[in-house]
């Protein structure tokens, strides 16, 4: 049986109450003492490589290169540009990158990363 969404997308949930990371003395980004990192969200997905080197128009009209299109179920909450994501398959990590654009369509949602 073919699975429509064989991969798992993981990202940190963004909300206004989440603390912002700050650099420590070593230059590593960490969360302030006593505060936890935002909770991780997992969503079923299907990641496909951009094998034909297509581009998309960004919010400012510039053409953006992207490495993967990540298809998500219809109704997935929007994921902000710049959000760090990981996509995993049963075999392990496929891609770790940031969101370039989120698109909500009639049949599904897409992330360009």
Structural summary, described in words:
The chain has no helices and eleven strands. The model has no long low-confidence stretch (mean pLDDT 86). 0% of the residues lie in helices and 48% in strands. Strand 5 (55-57) and strand 6 form a beta hairpin. It is mostly beta strands and 113 residues long. It has one domain. The strands form three sheets. Strands 9-8-1-4-7-11-10 form a seven-stranded antiparallel β-sheet, with no helix packed on it. A two-stranded antiparallel sheet has the order 2-3. The chain has a two-stranded antiparallel sheet with strand order 5-6. It starts with 6 loop residues before the first strand and ends with a strand.
């Amino acid at each position: 049986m073919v699975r429509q969404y064989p991969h798992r997308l993981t990202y940190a949930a963004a909300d206004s109450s989440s603390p912002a990371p700050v650099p420590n003395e070593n230059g590593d980004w960490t969360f302030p003492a006593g505060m936890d990192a935002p909770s991780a969200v997992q969503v079923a997905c299907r990641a496909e490589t951009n094998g034909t080197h297509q581009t998309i128009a960004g919010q400012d009209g510039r053409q953006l290169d992207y490495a993967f299109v990540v298809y998500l179920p219809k109704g997935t909450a929007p994921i902000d540009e710049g959000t760090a994501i990981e996509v995993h398959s049963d075999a392990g990590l496929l891609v770790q990158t940031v969101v370039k654009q989120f698109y909500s369509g009639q049949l599904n949602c897409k992330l360009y990363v």
